[in-house]
Specification:
By secondary structure, the chain is of the alpha+beta class. It has three domains: 1-202 and 376-406, Uridine Diphospho-n-acetylenolpyruvylglucosamine Reductase, domain 3 (2-Layer Sandwich); 206-282, ACT domain (Alpha-Beta Plaits); 285-368, Alpha-Beta Plaits. Helix content is 29%, strand content 26%. The protein has 13 helices and 19 strands. It has an eight-stranded antiparallel sheet.
């Protein structure tokens, strides 16, 4: 953290770049709001010359995820908030990274299109923040991951160079695919200022259903049957809290296809019952991140989803465990309880993961502040550090986030 005199000097210097009205000192950190990529690049060059660390902020919904060192400058991208292009006939769009996700979707909806992604807190989260944290929800069942949807980016590199990756058409194989590398990099390699997405038609006939069971293993045969069926399943998730367990299914097909009847028949064949529910069930992940919950992200094989859910909820009687699991094998798990109970549980999970085919990450530390977000094996860590040194040799972008640079 910079001393007051130094902060005042930084504030004055940044005011010359963005204007004094776009620079402020908050919580002993200088916050600046550039209006375009050129200003972002100039700020990065300034920070590089003076060896100042830079943090990147979007909507602030995931600042608590995978925390690093406190930066000397916070670069807010809230002014880069425009939808730049929407050639709807090509099913693509280009948008600035500070645009709120919900605002983007509302703008695209005018032509009956959307980015087929369901991130957390869409009314506040920004395009850049979602890309930086690689956030996505159960809609991946049908449309794939965020890395499958982003086809181009404009980046400001750690030396202030403005670079472009990918293009504005879906079929583009020119150059290195930096888009996939930057997605999920937590702003440690470059600053995303624009992104180009492939689009899909807005679902016209989406209906959501929920099936209740005593535990997740009772749902496993049904999940397998749905995945291997011809149902047009848009989203599929398993929710569990204490003794309550639900399988949520979203179908997207014309009523004449009678997909709901096919699903109902499958459910009855497995001795279960279903009911139609509102779209609110797809916001269940958001409740996990509220309060001081410690949230871990566990990745398993898709066939192990239900078994993992039940194993998790049997691991501790002293910790309240709530989970939302995507059918592809991603589990967001909230742990609520005293630190002396939560810490051993996280450590136990990591011990099991070390000898199994799954991974455990602490994305929201909650009461386990100070525990590393990731346990990265030496060969993988060496590769990640080498990539970091290549893109940011002076370690000015979000230092300490993801891992310590060496």
């Amino acid at each position: 953290m910079a001393p007051p005199v130094m902060m005042s000097r930084i504030s004055e210097d940044l005011s010359a770049i963005t204007g004094a009205e776009h620079v402020r000192i908050t919580d002993e950190i200088v916050v600046t709001e550039p209006a375009d990529a050129n200003s972002v690049a100039e700020i990065i060059r300034y920070a590089l010359q003076r060896r100042l660390s830079v943090g990147i902020r979007g909507g602030g919904t995931k600042l608590g995820w995978v925390r690093g060192e406190t930066p000397q400058i916070y670069l807010s991208l809230s002014k880069l908030n425009r939808l730049l292009e929407h050639p709807w006939q090509d099913l693509t769009c280009t948008v600035q990274s500070g645009c709120q996700w919900e605002a983007l979707q509302n703008a695209l909806a005018g032509h009956g299109q959307f980015v087929a992604l369901d991130p957390l807190f869409p009314e506040r989260a920004t395009v850049g923040g979602i890309l930086a944290t690689n956030d996505s929800g159960p809609m991946r069942q049908r449309y794939g991951s965020l890395r499958d949807l982003v086809i181009g980016m404009t980046l400001v590199l750690a030396d202030g160079t403005i670079a472009k990756s990918g293009g504005k058409v879906v079929k583009n194989v020119a150059g290195y695919d930096l888009c996939k590398l930057m997605t999920g990099s937590y702003g440690t390699l470059a600053i995303i200022t624009e992104a180009t997405f492939r689009l899909h038609p807005v679902p016209q006939h989406a209906r959501s259903f929920s099936i209740t069971a005593k535990d997740a293993n009772c749902l496993a045969p049904l999940v397998a049957a749905i995945r291997s069926s011809h149902l047009l399943t848009q989203s599929l998730q398993v929710r569990r809290k204490a003794s309550e367990c639900y399988l949520d299914v979203c179908l997207n097909a014309h009523p004449f296809a009678k997909q709901d009847e096919i699903l109902s028949r499958l459910v009855r064949n497995h001795g279960l019952e279903m009911r139609e529910v509102s779209e609110e069930v797809w916001k269940a992940r958001e409740s996990l991140f509220l309060g001081d919950a410690t949230v871990t992200r566990i990745a398993t094989l898709p066939v192990e989803v239900c078994q993992c859910v039940d194993n998790l909820h049997a691991m501790s009687a002293a910790v309240e465990i709530e989970s939302v699991s995507q059918s592809i094998g991603l589990h967001d798990v909230a742990l609520r309880g005293p630190r002396d109970e939560v810490v051993p549980l996280v450590q136990k999970l990591r011990t099991i993961a070390a000898s199994s085919d799954f991974t455990v990450s602490v994305i929201q530390p909650g009461v386990v502040e100070g525990i590393a977000a990731y346990e990265i094996s030496t060969p993988v860590l060496s590769l990640m550090q080498a990539v970091k040194r290549q893109f940011d040799p002076n370690n000015i972008l979000n230092p300490g986030r993801l891992f310590a640079c060496a």
